[in-house]
Amino acid sequence: MKIRWNVGVLRNVCDILVLCGCTARKGTACVVVVLIVYLLYRWNVVCSNRDVVNALSDLCVGVEEGIVHGNLCKEFCAQNVLVPLKCQAWHGGKEIVFRASFRGNPVFVKGRRWSGFENSEESLFWTDDAGVEHYPSLEDFKDVLRLHLHHNFNLSYSEKSFSRLWSLPLTKESLPADENEIYLHQSLRTMWDLVQDPEYVMIALLQHLDVFPELYGTCGPMYVVEEVKPLDLPGLLEKTSYSAWAGRARLALATLDLIEEFDTMFDTPLHLCDLKPEHFGLSEHQRMKFNDVDNVYLKPIVDRSVGDGSACSRHSDCDFFDCKGQCNMLKKKCLGGVTNNNLQVVCEKVFLGSSFGLKSFGTGMLASRHGEKILKPLLQACANPSGSKDGTRLSADRDHLVRLRSVLREIVSFDERLSEDNL
């Protein structure tokens, strides 16, 4: 990694540090120390709980004032109910991602921003010259929500969708009409902020399919989901026994089952466009789930993203993370739909992983000397169906899935026979 130093900024920081006690001779050293501390935080070597504690404190002030709502706000603010872990690492993509204990169960608390309603372009209301806020009617809001779900997710709207996204009533019998109007506006405002988060939308609307972490509830811009157990993956130089490798073959079969669900649960496939081994995990009931839903979209949305007509000079210019696009070399534009599928990415990034040129070793779930002759060639064909040398990837087909599943089942069956013989 190449680091470019901003000399002017460094000098200003040095001046500040000198005023704070660092001598001119030691000013640069102080800056280096500050930079190192920052990078330790940024790269998750060092962690802190400060932002989490401050954010929860501010949230609970809003709850007490009656301006922050959600079905878990009491739990967020009660003592020893939702307890953040003492050390929190930084996460990319979202401002809010921290681990916690919720009623004794491990969970993640997530959200787009520490404070909702900050982006005026996404605001649900407008303010006139007199400072009066104007909100859409409930029916108008539902129309906006219907368009939002269709355009950004290719999902249809229903009253059931509304209740999955916001489970609280929109009025209270105990409140007079004018206060109920305020309560309605605050609820719709909070709901609108939540549905700007693609992960929240997909988890909430597809909860009944049990493919993503369970959603426990919300408070303001934050929501709580179950923490699934990470998969057992080998280290780069780890020597794996046949029994342990067969155990990973069982996990691989469960992963294939989940991938097949994503391909068939809708009229078009659901694409996992940011796919990493650590994004798969097991629930407490041993159900395989996909736990990072920030970039999960139906095929029409992905097709539109990778084929948006933007300028390109190579195919990779059109990629949306792991969802591969194609560049029209004559027009120099990204045209056409996504070229690969979930199975291809799983074979490449999860089952094979990185070997760094070491034969029979790697970071993939199925990397092992035990699979060198039969399984590895199947995985390589699945990971790169066209045999491309330039990183271009096409979809793995049904034949790849059938052959891979057959070999994995043979591995598991042989391990079971070995276990019986040793009894």
Structure overview:
A five-stranded antiparallel beta sheet has the order 1-2-3-7-6, sandwiched between helices. The N terminus is likely disordered. The termini are far apart. It has 423 residues and is α+β, with helices and mostly antiparallel strands. Strand 6 and strand 7 form a beta hairpin. The chain is globular. The chain has 13 helices and 14 strands. Helix 12 packs antiparallel against helix 13.
Record field, number of beta strands: 14
Largest sheet: 5 strands, antiparallel
Counting helices, strands and paired strands, the structural category is alpha+beta
Proportion in β-strands: 5-15%
Q: What is the gyration radius calculated from CA atoms?
A: 25 Å
The quaternary organization reads as: single chain
Which term fits the overall shape? Answer: globular
Low-pLDDT residue spans: 1-13, 39-44
Let me know the average pLDDT.
87
End-to-end separation: 54 Å
Helix percent band: 40-55%
How would you spell out the order of helices and strands? HHHHEEEEEHHHHEEEHEEEEHEEHHH
Provide a count of the helices. 13
Strand order of the largest sheet: 1-2-3-7-6
